[in-house]
Amino acid sequence: MGRFDKYMLQQLLMLFGFFSLVLALVFWVNKAVSLLDWLMGDGQSASTFVQLTLLSLPTILVNLLPIAAFAATVYVTNRLASESELVVVQAAGYSPYRLARSVLIFGAIVGVMIAVLAHMLVPLSQRELDLRRAEITRDVTARLLTEGSFVHPVKGVTFYVRNITAAGELEDVYISNTRTEGERQGFMARKALIVKDDTGPMLLLFDGMSQVFDLEDNRLSVTRFDSFAYSLAGLLNTNPNQRRTMRSTDSLDLLRAGPALLTELNASRLEVLAEVAQRTNKAVQGLVICLVGFGALLIGGFSRFGLWRQILLAILLLVIVKSLDNGFGGAIDDDPRLWPLRYLASILAVFMALALMWKAAHPRLRPRKADAVRDNRGEAR
Fold this sequence. Notes:
Blueprint lengths: L2 H39 L4 H37 L2 H7 L4 H43 L1 H5 L5 E2 L5 E8 L5 E8 L5 E15 L2 E15 L4 E13 L1 H4 L14 H5 L3 H7 L3 H30 L9 H27 L9 H18 L7 H12 L1
Helix pairs in contact: 1-2, 1-4, 2-4, 2-9, 4-9, 9-10, 9-11, 10-11
């Protein structure tokens, strides 16, 4: 690798890190807002919020790293062209294909990073995220114990507690249950405790009364009690489905999946191949869109007015590639047998990049108007 290649690769990696950080912060804030609203509604702590947001970062990165790599390539190429550095190295004998060597190495580095994320880290983080969400679902105290607020854990149920002591006792508890057709249930108690049982969490009520109102007979039944046990298992759905999904399974396990795992995933062999192809294609696109952006700016040459037309062309080509990829993805979702089409947009991007570099290597295939006028004047003389 020559000095110019090392210099350009260093600039690409530096700008890639900057754009990745900016885009990650933007996407992370957008994700954190919705996540914070959900966690605040369930009464979770700040540490739980930090854990869940960190677990969501791999999924964010695997989608934004190709865009960050494209932006870094376009920015660095535009700066080198505006400062005449590309003109100098081209005058020294560097062809467009030779100049693309550093971009190719940079794209390969980005592709490896995306491949590690897509095939290993994203499924691992998704698996941990599913486990944490299941734990939050089973967290009775976080979902119910909100002082001075009416909580609705499920439709038709209202829970209220006035105060929670340092010993964990609930004071002045009220429960309303309207899920049973034809009647309304209400429970009030001065004190209560939440304990665990083999069948699920239980709410022990002390010194209270229960009210049952029959809607058909308009009759109210009141029963006073010293102690009463109220099951919370059905109320909070504390046994959610823990079945594995393809998103939470790494690619190696998917490729080696047997009939038992396919049954657990509720997927066919073709759907598994389509999922692995999608992950691999993300890594491939991290490489090819860098070459497309570089080739689009390379055909502009040197201009004092900048390469804004070539930048717009690069963005347009990126939109075309991503649109085709999304379109093929929709067709594959409908029919997994079409999973080889997942790579078609990336292959098209490779041909785009080669065509642009070929165009940059042959800038004078047709004589310019000024050259034609100059030749005519010479012949007239």
